[in-house]
Amino acid sequence: MKNKLQNRKKSMMIVFLSSMMLLTNNTFAKKNDIKNTNTVWTTEKANDWYANQPWYSGCNFQPSTAINQIEMWQAETFDPATIDRELGWAEELGFNIMRVYLSSEVWKADSEGLKKKMDQYLSISDKHGIKTIFCIFDDCWNPESKVGKQPAPKPGVHNSEWIQDPSVSLRMNTTKLFPILEKYVKDIIGTFKNDKRIVFWDLYNEPGNSGHGISSLPLLKDVFKWAREVNPSQPVSSGIWYFGCKELNAFQIANSDVITYHNYLDEREHQTWINFLKMQNRPMICTEYMARRNNSRFENIMPLLKNNKIGAINWGFVSGKTNTIFAWDEPKPNEKEPVLWFHDIFRQDHTPFDYREIDLIKKLNGKPSRIKEIPTESFNAKIDGKEVMLYTLRSKNGAVAQITNFGGRLVSLWVPDRYGTFDDIVTGQKTIQDYQDCAEIYFGALIGRYGNRIAKGQFTLNGKKYQLALNDGKNTLHGGIRGFHNVVWDARFFRNEKWEDNLELKYFSPDGEEGYPGNLNVTVVYTMTDDNELRIEYKAVTDKPTVINLTHHSLFNLHGFSNGKAQSINSHVLQIDASNYTPTDNELIPTGKIESVKGTPMDFTQPTVIGKRVNENFPALENGKGYDHNLVLDKKEMELTEAATVYEPSNGRIMKVFTTEPGLQFYGGNFLNGSVTGKYGEVYTYRTAFALETQHYPDGPNHPNFPTAVLKPGEVYTQTCIYKFFTK
Question: Are 316 and 309 contacting, i.e. CB atoms less than 8 angstroms apart?
Answer without folding.
Answer: no
